[in-house]
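Supplementary Note 2. Why include the ligand at all?

Several targets in our set were suspected to adopt different conformations when bound, so apo predictions alone were not considered sufficient. For every target with a known small-molecule partner we therefore ran a joint prediction. The input for pyridoxal-5'-phosphate is given below.
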Amino acid sequence: MANDQCAGWTTAPGHTYSDFVAEYPAYTETAAIDDLRAAEYGRLDRLGHVYLDYTGGGQYAASQLRDHLALLNDGVYGNPHSNNPTSLAMTELVEQARAAVLAFFNADPAEYTAIFTQNASGALKLVGEAYPFQPGGRYALTFDNHNSVNGIREYARRGGATVRYIPVRGSDLRVDPALFAAHLAEADPAAHNLLAFPAQSNFSGVQHPLAWVADAQARGWDVLLDAAAFAPTNRLDLAAIQPDFVPLSFYKIFGYPTGVGCLLARRRTLAKLQRPWFAGGTIAIASVQGEGWHYLLPGAAGFEDGTVNYLNLPAVEIGLRHITRVGVDTIHARVHCLAGWLLRELQALRHSNGAPLAHIFGPQTMDDRGATIAFYLLDPTGQPYDVRRLELLAGASGISLRTGCFCNPGDGEVAHDLRREEMAQCFVGHQGGPVLFAEFYETIRRSTGKTPSTMRVSLGVASNFADVASFLDFAYGFCDIDAAALDSQPIASGHHQALPDAA
Ligand SMILES: Cc1ncc(COP(=O)(O)O)c(C=O)c1O
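The joint prediction is reproduced in token form.
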């Protein structure tokens, strides 16, 4: 796929592993993960996969599966919360998992509780539907939130609270600190005010200052810190910062199991939530003759609707133990080195005419950012290649990356300079039912010439140098290739789509 005439590089873009470690010596201190990759994540190399979608979903270690299966095989478990032996055994494991989650995030059980949910979105919905949004109160949120945080605005509106977005700006997609402070100052401290922001944007990788949590609380805000994209490769210490609500999905941290997330909630703020309904599992007692009579269970139990995903909860404890053994700080150091190198090398890629091959959306260095990188690949005239085609081509090379808007419309709108009035054509007065993403994409392309879709690579627990080098080789393969020539080729449904000749 490489083109010899491109900027003096032949196969990979110039640099070798020894160049890399010379520049990032801290990487060698994470060498234990290379052994782990072979022992625990060997399927990636055995099956020829270059996995670069950790922000989409983490990868599981083989021992997690073995340990979980052994636990299930060697025990007899029933639905928790009864007094029979199989139920009691399960209840013990559920509570053990809850304690393990709190310990992993260094959360004082007197201060925090962990509510098990289906995923981070389930945790966010619990907050949205029960937060006392009222006239006079506010819901403020940064532009770069995931849609599951954006969706809380519908509850806020319904309750009569004022909804305010805090924009991200510039090519690095960060928030202006003065503007942030101005938004905080708008709250009436006597009202119920909720601020939501991601500890790490799942689009740009931006890591907002965690000091915002205490700043906002001091000005009368409750703070929802979305840690879904942050927690897999960064230490979140709830003794050091104390947000009121932290939603998470465990599959993003350790791959298995899916279908379990949690809401870490500060007990004192949890007490002001008003659940809109009750269900089996959440009720102390209810009466059918007295229609309005019911008591919710106190604490986490009052928020866990129905039967929790009980057989999978021990797998959460197993996953946390695994990550603890590897070391969150080791994982962090490793992906920080790899992402720094990837960012720099991607920015250095050039066509023969000197034009850049990549454009990064978000911070250009590793200062206050995580290992999630959004970008376009550009042709020699600066035209982005069709990201859908790139995803297929990457797939044909065994590379799993993600394209689209990643459920993060705010970062997307700013990154692609999509104006409100340009977005409006898909919403205001639109006839003919909901606009799906493909139609939105074509409408924006046709009317503005802009491309409202992005590529993203993200690193995680099992990432290594070879993964990043493979991706750079892939990107370099587009050197001197014309976007129109690529577009004119039919999209192959499956594998091994050839690139056109370089222009
Ligand atoms: C920052 C962020 N928040 C929330 C979510 C929602 O997670 P889930 O789909 O597991 O509910 C995601 C998922 O990608 C995310 O990246």
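The radius of gyration is 24 Å. Confidence is low (pLDDT under 50) at residues 494-498. Comparable summaries for the other entries are listed in the accompanying table.
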